[in-house]
Specification:
The complex is a heterodimer of chains A (104) and B (577). By secondary structure, chain A is mainly α. Chain A has one domain. Chain A contains 5 helices and no strands. Chain A has helices at 2-23, 26-33, 41-63, 66-90, 96-99. In chain A, α1 (2-23) crosses α4 and α3 packs across α4 (66-90). Chain B has 20 helices and 7 strands. Chain B has a 7-stranded antiparallel sheet with strand order 3-2-1-4-5-6-7. Among the domains of chain B are: 51-144 and 264-347, no CATH class; 405-577, no CATH class. The chains are: A mainly alpha (104), B alpha+beta (577). Chains A and B meet through α1 and α4 of A and α7, α8 and α13 of B.
Chain lengths: 104, 577
């Protein structure tokens, strides 16, 4: 149970991390918020995204042997990126949930 | 020949990708299914629908089964021209017995190898395989095909085309081309990071297909790269068969030296000896693993030189919690049960090898990683399919003007390898449920019949795709896409219904009992059906829009204008680059 929760958490932070990395890009920020990025937002979002992805790796390492955790993490990164891209295509507003990190 | 490196790469990517893409499509799709090969086996062989079992007792269950085995006809037919004189009636000199299981196997596959007297090449052995119920030792019928692990899985790496091993070579070539396509694709892709998350479905088909092609290629790049690469590593022995050609004497010598070093006899002594309790050896192996803090189940159990005083028993730990398939081998003297050798920790190189093959073959226990692999594989399919669509969309207007049939042929082949392949697979599952348990005499074995129907379904889908493709030669959309999507949906639902009707295992029951192998296959089929309907409707909508546009402007549809603008912009960029 603990393992399942940690893996779910790993997926969730990878998803959030990819979401922040996407929001760090001007085009996607506009898709989500309908206006240009505030000053310095890109930097902040990029850092936050990187930290979230690293946290995902840490969570994976907490569950499995390192060799397996690395595979789970890499696959989770790819899957989250595709999910974020699909959200941006069909329901960009959903990413509002992450946009607070960019500031107003 | 080419103005710059990028154009050269684009040419390479387009043409190599096109030709071997058709093979890669099957490799990716059946590879994705192979992630759950054993679960598909459960679906196809209702008698095997029970919980996975650990390795059974050798002394009580396996020994009587092994002792009752004799080489199968297929093996004898192969050997007939390879011996001097006739083959013996019975084979009593056992070279090896073996059993391999994983945490997902209810039934146990076992094999036996026998020495063949007067054989020309002493590496040749007679072999027998059998599948048993490990709870009782009872054999399962031989004519039941394990559709997952014995058809879809080998299709993934050999196309089930065994003549001169050509299937392996074609797939190996396709894997090389996959690596080339990945590298050349990255080179020719101008905006990897800028368009990392970009998919614009509302643009013209050519543009949105390219978006999807780029996205599924780039985002799953590590997966694509590693699987193509490790697939080649796994079959390196086939692609570079040096150990049994140029280096054969060296290989022989190495085997003998290794035998001296490890104390595991290379040959029989020729002195008969009894067999001590193998269960006691297994218990000792498990005690030693537990003492190392690696308590575990037996993955592989093997006996070599059975009945001889040089005989030994090898016990390997199942790699359920590791990437490596098995490990921590311990070898015992068969006649006494004394430990001959405990394998030392693998070297760094061996560990890398185990990791590379293990990550591809995935016999470990990690359901999330399994599903992520399926996802990666299906992304590969999307990438290849959208590559075909882009190829056709880019050329079909041009071809229509020139009266060329080129894009029509490519499109029909794309239909064949995308939806046609699904029709073949679903048709096989339907055949599996519809064929009677006992076939009339004179018919081919049940499993063979299922395979014939698979290929027949695929051939029919191909005929249909070519027959309906005339529209493409005029710049339109092949109605076969839509029709085959509906066929896939209907067949997938029919397979689920037939599973219910013939076994009584409907979804409410299997989900309620948490019997996920069968519930999972059913749910996957239903999800596939839903996606197929969705795809069919989207194809219809696109075809309608294209027709409207063509009617509104007889010379050029709006889609064409955006297409032309896009390609003009591209040309400009290319000129700048």
């Amino acid at each position: 149970m603990r393992d399942a929760l940690m893996l779910a958490a790993a997926l969730a932070v990878c998803l959030a991390g990819m979401g922040w990395l996407a929001l760090a890009m001007d085009v996607h920020w506009e898709q989500v918020r309908g206006a240009g990025q505030p000053h310095g937002a890109a930097r902040r979002l990029r850092w936050l995204g990187a930290v979230a992805l690293a946290a995902g790796l840490a969570l994976c390492l907490g569950v499995d042997h390192a060799s397996m955790a690395a595979l789970v993490w890499i696959m989770a990164l790819g899957a989250s990126a595709i999910v974020v891209a699909m959200v941006l295509t069909w329901r960009p507003r959903l990413l509002q949930a992450l946009a607070w990190a960019g500031g107003r | 020949m080419f103005k710059n490196f990028r154009l050269a790469m684009a040419w390479l990517h387009t043409w190599f990708g096109l030709v071997l893409g058709f093979v890669l499509m099957a490799v990716f799709f059946f590879g994705s299914l192979s992630v759950f090969d054993r679960e598909i086996d459960r679906w196809a062989i209702p008698a095997s629908r029970f919980e996975p079992q650990p390795m059974p007792s050798f002394d009580k269950v396996l020994r009587p089964v092994f002792e009752s085995m004799q080489p199968q006809q297929e093996s004898l037919d192969y050997l007939k021209p390879r011996v001097n004189g006739p083959l013996p009636e019975r084979f009593d000199t056992v070279r090896a017995w073996g059993a391999y299981t994983t945490h997902r196997d209810p039934v146990l596959g076992i094999y036996a190898n026998y020495e063949v007297p007067n054989v020309k090449d002493h590496d040749d052995v007679a072999y027998a395989t059998r599948t048993i119920d490990p709870r009782s030792g009872a054999s399962l019928p031989d004519d039941r095909l394990k559709i997952g692990s014995r058809f879809f899985y080998p299709l993934h790496y050999s196309l089930n085309f065994h003549w001169m091993d050509l299937g392996y070579w074609i797939v190996g070539m396709a894997a090389m081309v996959m690596l080339i396509a990945l590298v050349s694709g990255v080179v020719m892709h101008r905006k990897i990071f800028r368009e990392f998350f970009t998919f614009r479905p509302k643009k013209a088909t050519q543009r949105s297909a390219l978006d999807l092609h780029n996205m599924t290629g780039v985002l799953a790049l590590p997966f694509h790269f590693f699987f193509a690469f490790t697939g080649l590593v796994i079959f390196a022995g086939i692609y570079f068969p040096v150990t049994h050609t140029q280096l054969n004497p060296l290989h022989e010598l190495h085997e003998k030296l290794e035998a001296q070093e490890t104390g595991l006899p290379h040959d029989r002594a020729g002195v008969a000896a009894p067999l001590a309790s193998v269960d006691a050896m297994v218990a000792e192996a498990q005690r030693r693993w537990a003492a190392k803090g690696m308590a575990g189940e037996v993955g592989y159990l093997g006996l070599t030189h059975v009945g001889d005083s040089n005989g030994y028993v090898s016990v390997y730990r199942a790699g359920t919690d590791r990437i490596a398939l098995t490990g921590q081998g311990i070898h015992f003297k068969a006649s006494t049960g004394a430990v001959i050798r405990e394998e030392p920790a693998p070297t760094a190189v061996a560990r890398v090898g185990e990791f590379l093959t293990g990550l591809h073959l995935q016999h470990f226990r990690h359901w999330m990683l399994r599903w992520l692999y399926v996802f990666g594989g299906l992304m590969g399919c999307v990438c290849i399919a959208t590559g075909f669509i882009f190829f056709v969309e880019k050329r079909k207007k041009q071809h229509a003007k020139q009266g060329s049939q080129g894009s029509r042929a490519v499109d029909a082949l794309a239909v064949t390898t995308v939806t046609g392949m699904l029709i073949a697979a679903a048709g096989m599952l339907i055949a599996n449920r519809l064929l009677p348990d006992a076939l009339p005499s004179g018919w081919p074995p049940r499993g063979d019949l299922e395979q014939y129907l698979f290929w027949a379904g695929w051939a029919l889908a191909m005929l249909h795709a070519f027959a309906r493709g005339g529209v493409v030669a005029q710049g339109g959309i092949n109605p076969a896409w839509r029709e085959q999507c509906y066929a896939v949906a209907a067949m997938a639902v029919a397979a689920v219904g037939l599973n219910w009707a013939t076994t009584g295992d409907h979804l409410l029951k299997t989900v309620g009992e948490h019997y996920w192998p069968v519930a999972g296959v059913d749910l996957f089929l239903l999800a596939g059906a839903a996606l197929a309907v969705l795809a069919a409707r989207m194809v219809s909508a696109r075809a309608m829009r294209a027709a409207d546009a063509a009617a509104a402007s007889p010379l050029q549809g709006t889609a064409d204008i955006t297409d032309m603008a896009a390609s003009a912009a591209q040309k400009k960029e290319a000129a700048h680059a």
